[in-house]
Specification:
Blueprint (H helix, E strand, L loop, with lengths): L3 H14 L4 H7 L6 H6 L6 H10 L4 H5 L10
Length: about 80
């Protein structure tokens, strides 16, 4: 199914592509600065938090989850 480590890696890669600091992204999304570690610790992330991150990084949730390799948002 979905792998939390892959999710974290895709978030970090996309943030780097966009020249965004993870800390700044989490604060702008209204998330705790430990949210990425919580994903890694398999505590999960709400669908709303994941959607906020995807919106901030201008990519689809499907991309972050590894369901597609294209970060573009389908409209």
């Amino acid at each position: 199914m979905y792998n939390s480590q892959d999710l974290v890696l895709r978030i970090k890669i996309r943030a780097k592509e966009k020249n965004v600091l993870i800390r700044d992204m989490l604060i702008a999304c209204g998330l705790n600065i430990n949210a990425i570690s919580q994903i890694s610790d398999k505590k999960g992330l709400s669908c709303f938090s994941l959607a906020r991150i995807a919106d901030y990084l201008n990519c689809s949730v499907d991309y972050l989850l590894g369901r597609t390799d294209k970060p573009e948002i389908n409209k």
